[in-house]
Amino acid sequence: MADKDNFLHLARPLGPAHVGAQPSTAPLNVVIQPQAIFSILDHSLRRPQDQDRVIGTLLGVRSEDGTEIEIRNCYAVPHTETAEQVEVDMDYQKQMLALHLRANPREVLVGWYATSSDLNTFSALIQNFYGQQGDGTWPYPAVHLTVSTIPGQDIEARTYISSPIGVTAERAADSCLFIPVPYEIKYGEAEKSGLELISSAKDREDRTQGVLTDIESLERAVQHVLDMLERVSNYVNNVLDEEATPSSALGQFLMNALSLAPKVDAADIERDFNAHIQDVLVVSYLANTIRTQIDLSNRLATAALTLGSGDALTGTENTSKEGGDNNRRGGDNRRSGGNKGRQQNRSTVEA
Questions:
Q1: What is the band of 333 on the pLDDT scale with cuts at 50, 70, 90?
Q2: Residues contacting 152, CB < 8 A, separation 6+
Q3: E strand map for 126-269
Q4: What are 225-262's pLDDT values in tens digits?
Q5: Cis (ω within 30 of 0) for the bond into 139?
Q6: Which of 9, 58, 76, 99 could cross-link with 27 by S-S, CB 3.0 to 4.6 Å?
Q7: What is the pTM of this model?
């Protein structure tokens, strides 16, 4: 992250009124979200082998006065660059910008990026294109973000705004003065966990890292807290033993941190923590039980539909046939019984 104290902001005098209104070059601060850096690095990895750098558009939010810019998103823009000329697909840039602004209405165009720290005439041409009126960032300055992607070296980012220079309007269109501005990379707790997980893969040969379970994440977090407490305790002991130089600022920070600690006994904290762990385990067990029951019910219903339909139809046919046979047998029995009764009656009359 760049140091804000190392930058000197210069505001050039405005040109004559007949030259036309010029964009603002007031001092500003730039905040970069990590997902924008990852998108730029991914674009650099997918570039053709014969292409030295890639460029793209930066999207984000801007304060009302234009002094604070937050870069949240970016997308790649096709371009071809040789030693003599540079060509940027402006139609693609306008269409993608319209789509992104439709999907994210709160974001605006803030500038462009390049995966090279070099600033040349082509950079000035692209900078003037993004800072123009109409489809550009005018009257606000366009932010130019450079990200070095040299293999084997640390990633270095820089941010610039520009000021037009030149004795004529034609000369000023293809030249500009890049002014460095401070920047800061900010991320939340959720993003910090993801960044730590990704950075842990650098120590492995296959450059991969599996996702940790909840228990493993909790164990790692507790171990991290214990390591920090041990480091602070060693520093305090060294200061008391006059082996380390005391720092009033660090001492005040430790006092403020300790004053925020709740006045609760360690036994109560341990009891509440164990109760919370038991509640979590019970909820997890019930969730797994319900999930298993639902899965079993689905399997039984599927089996009944696929296997039970044919058996049910066969059983119905057999039952109907057996019923018909029984009815026929009953009719025969009744007929035979009637014949016997008639024979007995005849024998009685004759007697």
A1: low
A2: none
A3: 143-147, 157-164, 176-181, 183-185
A4: 999 999 999 999 999 998 888 888 888 888 888 888 77
A5: yes
A6: 9
A7: 0.58
Higher pLDDT, 132 or 26: 132
Q: Are strands 86-88 and 79-81 parallel, antiparallel or unpaired?
A: antiparallel
Q: Could you tell me how many residues make up the chain?
A: 351
Task: Write the DSSP assignment of 160-177 as a string of letters.
Answer: EEEEE--SSHHHHHT-EE
Q: Compute CA distances 188 → 15, 191, 194, 341, whole Å.
A: 43, 5, 10, 102
pLDDT for residue 192 is more than 80: no
Q: What percent of the chain has pLDDT over 70?
A: 77
Q: How far is CA 321 from CA 88, 154, 326, 330, in A?
A: 83, 86, 9, 14
Nearest residue to 157 (alpha-carbon basis) of 96, 71, 93: 71
Q: With both helix axes pointing from N to C terminus, report the angle between 34-45 and 189-199 in degrees, rounded to the nearest 10.
A: 40
What single-letter DSSP state applies at residue 267?
Answer: H
**Predicted pLDDT at 328:** 53
Token couple for 38: 């990852």
SS3 content of the chain, % helix, strand, coil (to 5): 55, 15, 30
- On the question of pLDDT at 349 being above 90, the answer is no
| C-alpha closest to that of 111 among 67, 147, 133, 143 | 143
Nearest to 132 by CA among 72, 173, 74: 173
Task: Report CA-CA distances (Å) from 18 to 70, 139, 169, 327.
Answer: 34, 17, 12, 113
